[in-house]
Amino acid sequence: MKTISVIMPTYNKGGRLALTLKSFCYQKTSQQFEIILIDGGEVPNTEANRFLPFLPIKIVRVKNLGRSHNRNVGINIAEGDLLIFCDDDLIVESSFIEAHWLAHRSNANLLIHGWKNEIPYVRFFIDPREPQRGLIKGYENRKISEELLNYRIMEEDLTDNLNIIKKWGHSQDNLEKNIRHMFTKGIDQYQIPWLASCTANMSISRSFALEVGLFQESFGLEWGPEDLEFGYRIYKAGGRFGDAPQAQSYHISHARTNWKSIAQQGFHKFQQLYPREQQISKVSELLIERSIDIDLFINS
Fold first, then answer.
1. Which of 98, 233, 288, 300 could tie 29 with a disulfide, CB 3.0–4.6 Å?
2. 165 in a structural domain
């Protein structure tokens, strides 16, 4: 039986997924683990097959019913006592799995946030390994500079030291910046510690995930705050929140069209589930509009 299950939904990511899986080939951990790849793409992702001889991957094909559904499929078939959620476009350091494992030794009802950095230079490319293949949907007519074309990420770059990746992955998105700020000041001071429940890089015991009822599938297909809603229930169930700086990851960024309106719709659904919870709409202002400061959420 595996100790750890890495749950990774994927949807038509191709080259980004290959880079993610390549980085997992360098894990240095004392624990047995499995990678459950839940593939909801229109056609099977053949990139994953190349890594079957090198990684303990379990590939599950599903009809795409949204991120929440796909993660729940992974949870239900997981063999591990510890669940690590990882997106299909993250390059992880060799200490990634071990750092999550070590962070959970002190508390069973703990949610751990691993650090996530951004590699912004490749966000317009269909395949960051081959920029010449073209640009992602919605940005096909964008003019790309010759300098930007030099920022391609090759599988050969993903050695166990990740020197190039560390050099390029030097920034954080707005959510990550706010999460790190809370941990720096002391997350227990804040009314919204559940902000740290970002499933791009997060872990929790399987038993606690089952106890709180898995992910809310009513969020559907659109990108949104389904992971924050899960974290909100973790918080209400008495869960604690910690971080694991050694569980470093580097997001192979991808541009989104209409991201703000999609996020607003997601937070509207979140608020409808808990109409009396005033903090939800304020978190929307914090993350989407950036019109308020995170320290307004410190307990008085």
1. 98
2. yes
- What DSSP string describes 15-44? HHHHHHHHHHTT---SS-EEEEEEE-SSS-
Q: Is 294 within a domain?
A: no
Q: Which of 249, 169, 234, 223 is nearest to 195 (CA)?
A: 234
Q: How many residues does the chain have?
A: 300
Other C-beta atoms closer than 10 Å to the C-beta of 160 total 12
Position 139 in a domain:
no
d(CA 56, CA 60): 13
Identify the CA nearest to 70 among candidates 54, 56, 55, 87: 87
Q: How far apart are CA 48 and CA 39, in angstroms?
A: 10
Q: What Cα–Cα distance (Å) separates residue 56 from each residue in 36, 46, 99, 273?
A: 9, 16, 19, 38
What residues pair up with 53 in beta bridges, in sequence order? none
Q: Tell me, what CATH number does 18's domain have?
A: 3.90.550.10
